C-alpha cells in the first residue's frame, strides 16, 4: 500500500501531523435529529499531494470550506474517489473502527484506476484515529448510532487538460449518524432497471469512484416515481442481478434438494467489493464450514458467489423457493427487500415478522455485534484505549 | 431550454448581472507560450442556484478560487457537467462564438441526465458574451488562436447523501489557446482498446458529464506506454468503433463501386453529440446534395451515420479501400489518424502530404473558415459589433 505511482516521493507521514484546534466548537445536535450526512464534527483531516513533493504535511484543523480553483480537475473531470466507514463507541466509551484495512486497500485500488496517487493505508488509518479521538464526543451514545468516516481523494490540478493530475488533496470528514432503520427494519421495493446501467464490463463499477454515483440519481428518481425505493441494477440480455441502489445484494434460495443457498454476484469487474459484502460472506462461510456457527441458523447453508438472472428469481418465486433478498452496505448494514418490479409485474419476496429473513437475521446479529464490540473480533480495531 | 426541473423558480436573468472589475488585471502571456487550459483570463462568470430560490444573481468578477464545502456533492459523487466552445477574433477585431446554441442545448441535456438544474440557454449565451467582451483582449491575435470558453455546472449541496442536489453553481471561465497543431497536422496513432470502455448502453456516454473523463486517463496512459497517442474506444464483441480519446471519429472508405463514403457512428446513446461532429456531417451533406459544394473535393461523396466494426476496417485496409480516418472535436477541430494498433497488429491508414486526407482537408478548410469568420455563415455568432 505504498505510493506506487511516485516511488521517489514521500508517502503519508503521521509524524508530521500538525493540529490546529477549533476554538469555536459546536454542540453536537440531539441524536434523534440526525439526518444522514448533514452534520459534521469540529475538525477535519487534510493531506495535500503533488507530483514533485509527494504527500505533504497532514493537518487536523477546524472543519470548514476549502479554497478551490475554478480550473481544479475534480470540478470538470470527476477525479474523485471516496470511502465510507464507521467508528462505534461501546458502553464503556471505547471507540473502534470496523475493518479499516479493507477500506484502505479499496481506496488505493480506486486511486490506481483513476490515476490519483496511492498511499500507505496504515499511515492514513493512524491519522484517522487521531482525528476521531479529537472529535470522539460527537459519536452518539445511543445504540445503533455511529460516526460515519468519509475519506475522500480529489484531483486539484489547476488546468483543464484531461490527464493525471499533478496536484491532489486527501481529506477526511466525520459525520454522526443514527441507525439507518430508526424503528425496526423496513423492507424496500426495488425497480428492476433495464433502461440504465450502473456499471459495464471494462468500466469502473468495481471501484469506489464518484463517477459511479451521480449517474444513478436520475434512475433512482425514475424508480421512486413508479413507487419503488431503489434500483435493482440488471445487466445484459439475461438481466443478471448486480447491485441494489448503492449497495451490494444477496438473495437466498431453497435449492431443489431442500438446502438453503445464499448467493451474491461474483466480483467480475462490475461489482463493488463491499466491506459489508465480504463480512456477510465470511460469516456465512464460517457458519457453513462449522468454524463459527451462527446462533439461530439451522440446516445446511450453501454460500455462493455466482451470477443470478431475473429468470432464476422469477422461477424460484413461482416455485416458493425464494427465501429472502437484501442489500448490504456500510450505511444500512443489511436492507431487506420485499418486492421487485420487473418488466411490468411485481415479484413478491418473503420477509420475516420484523422485516428480516431467516438467514439475514442471524448474520446481521453477529455482524452488528462485532461492529458494536459486544462480540469481540479482530475486525474491530481500537481507536481509543 | 427553460428550467424544467423547477418551473416555479426564477430562470437565469441577464438583467440582474452584477459586475465587479478585477483591479489587478494580469498581462496575457505571449501566444507562443500558451499550453492548453493552463492560463485563465481576469474575470469569470458565476450563477448560483438553489432549489428554493432558483437561479440567483449572475456575477462577473475577478477570476479566483471558490469557497467549497468539504461535503459538497461534486467532490464526492461527481455531480458535474461542462461544455467546451471557442470565441474567435477576426482581423478587424470582431469577436464571434461558433454555434453556441448547440452547446447550450447539450448542456441542458447533460443537466437533465445528472439531476442538475436546467436553464435558459439564450440567457447564458448573453452572459457569456458579456464576459468575453470584458476579457476580449485576452484572445490572441495570431491565426488559429482562440479563447476557449468553459461553462461548468456543479452540485454544491452540503450533504453526503446521494440524491439530486438542492444547491448548484454554474460558472464560466475563459482560457486563451493556440492552434492544436502548432506546426502542421501531425497524424496520431490509436490503440484499439478492448480492456476498457468509454461508454455502454444505458450509461452516460451521450452526455458531456465529468464522469466520462476521469476513467479515461488510465487507459490513455496505458495506450501511451504502448506507443499510441490515444484510445480508439471499441464496443461489444464485434468491436464497433465509437470514439477516439475525447473526440468523435470519422472514417472514409472507397466503396466497392468506387464511391467515397464518409462514415461516423450513429448517436445511439454511447456517442457524444459533438458540435464539430455535427458541423462536419452538415458540411459533407451539403456538399453531397449540391447545396454548398466544398472546394477541392471531387467525385461522389456518400455521408453515413452507421456502425463500423474493426473487421470492416481491416478488410478495407487490406483491399486498399481505406482512404483516411480522423477525430473531430472543439479542441483540435480535426485530428488525422495514421495507425491503429489492434489485437497485436498495426493497421496503417493513409494520410496526405501535410497529414490531412482528401476528404478532411476540404471540410476542415470550410469549417475553420466559418469559425474564423473568413467564410460568413450563420454558425458564427457575433460577440462584439
Describe this structure in words.
Two copies of one chain form a homodimer. The mean pLDDT of chain A is 95. Chain A is of the alpha+beta class and 385 residues long. Chain A is 21% helix and 29% strand. The two termini of chain A are 26 Å apart. The longest helix of chain A has 15 residues, at 275-289. In chain A, strands 1, 2, 3, 4, 6, 7, 8, 9, 10 and 20 form a ten-stranded mixed beta sheet that branches. Chain A has helices spanning 73-77, 100-113, 121-134, 217-225, 275-289, 310-318, 360-372, and strands at 18-19, 43-50, 54-55, 59-62, 66-68, 80-82, 85-89, 95-98, 146-155, 167-177, 188-193, 230-235, 240-244, 247-254, 260-264, 301-305, 322-329, 333-342, 345-348, 380-382. Chains A and B meet through strand 5, helix 1, strand 9, strand 10 and helix 4 of A and strand 5, helix 1, strand 9, strand 10 and helix 4 of B. Chains A, B: Residues 1-31 are annotated as: Disordered. Chains A, B: GO terms for molecular function: branched-chain-amino-acid transaminase activity. Chains A, B: Keywords: Amino-acid biosynthesis, Aminotransferase, Branched-chain amino acid biosynthesis, Pyridoxal phosphate, Transferase. Chains A, B: Its EC number is 2.6.1.42.
Kindly state the mean pLDDT of chain A as a whole number?
95
The end-to-end span of chain A amounts to: 26 Å
Alpha plus pi helix count of chain A: 7
Number of domains of chain A: 2
Cofactor (chains A, B): pyridoxal 5'-phosphate
Keywords (chains A, B): Amino-acid biosynthesis, Aminotransferase, Branched-chain amino acid biosynthesis, Pyridoxal phosphate, Transferase
Region (Disordered) (chains A, B): 1-31
Organism (chains A, B): Mycena alexandri
Amino acid at each position: 500500500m505504498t505510493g506506487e505511482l511516485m516511488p521517489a516521493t514521500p508517502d503519508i507521514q503521521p509524524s508530521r501531523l500538525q493540529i490546529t484546534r477549533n476554538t469555536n466548537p459546536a454542540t453536537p445536535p440531539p441524536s434523534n435529529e440526525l439526518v444522514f450526512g448533514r452534520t459534521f464534527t469540529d475538525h477535519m483531516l487534510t493531506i495535500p499531494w503533488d507530483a514533485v513533493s509527494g504527500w505533504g504535511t497532514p493537518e487536523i484543523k477546524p472543519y470548514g470550506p476549502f479554497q478551490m480553483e475554478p480550473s481544479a480537475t475534480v470540478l470538470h473531470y470527476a477525479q474523485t474517489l471516496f470511502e465510507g466507514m464507521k467508528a462505534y463507541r461501546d458502553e464503556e466509551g471505547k471507540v473502534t473502527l470496523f475493518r479499516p484495512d479493507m477500506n484502505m486497500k479499496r481506496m488505493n485500488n480506486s486511486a490506481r484506476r483513476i490515476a490519483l496517487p496511492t498511499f500507505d493505508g496504515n499511515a492514513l488509518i493512524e491519522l484517522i484515529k487521531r482525528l476521531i479521538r479529537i472529535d470522539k464526543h460527537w459519536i452518539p451514545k445511543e445504540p445503533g448510532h455511529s460516526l460515519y468516516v468519509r475519506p475522500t481523494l480529489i484531483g486539484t490540478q489547476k488546468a483543464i487538460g484531461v490527464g493525471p493530475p499533478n496536484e491532489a488533496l486527501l481529506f477526511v470528514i466525520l459525520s454522526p449518524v443514527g441507525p439507518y432503520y430508526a424503528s425496526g427494519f423496513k423492507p424496500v421495493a426495488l425497480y428492476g432497471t433495464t433502461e440504465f446501467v450502473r456499471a459495464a464490463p471494462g468500466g469502473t463499477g468495481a471501484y469506489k469512484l464518484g463517477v459511479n454515483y451521480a449517474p444513478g440519481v436520475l434512475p433512482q428518481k425514475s424508480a421512486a416515481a413508479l413507487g419503488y425505493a431503489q434500483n435493482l441494477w440488471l445487466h445484459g440480455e439475461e438481466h443478471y442481478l448486480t447491485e441494489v441502489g448503492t449497495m451490494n445484494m444477496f438473495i437466498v434460495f431453497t435449492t431443489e434438494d431442500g438446502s438453503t443457498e445464499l448467493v451474491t454476484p461474483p466480483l467480475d469487474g462490475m461489482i463493488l467489493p463491499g466491506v459489508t459484502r465480504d463480512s456477510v460472506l465470511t460469516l456465512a462461510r464460517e457458519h457453513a464450514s462449522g468454524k463459527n456457527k451462527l446462533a439461530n441458523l439451522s440446516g445446511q447453508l450453501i454460500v455462493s458467489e455466482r451470477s443470478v438472472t431475473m429468470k432464476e428469481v422469477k422461477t424460484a418465486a413461482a416455485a416458493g423457493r425464494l427465501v429472502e433478498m437484501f442489500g448490504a452496505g456500510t450505511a444500512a448494514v443489511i436492507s431487506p427487500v420485499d418486492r421487485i418490479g420487473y418488466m411490468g409485474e411485481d415479484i413478491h419476496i418473503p420477509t420475516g415478522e420484523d422485516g428480516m429473513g431467516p438467514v439475514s437475521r442471524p448474520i446481521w446479529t453477529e455482524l452488528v455485534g462485532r461492529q458494536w464490540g459486544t462480540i469481540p473480533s479482530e475486525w474491530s480495531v481500537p481507536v481509543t484505549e
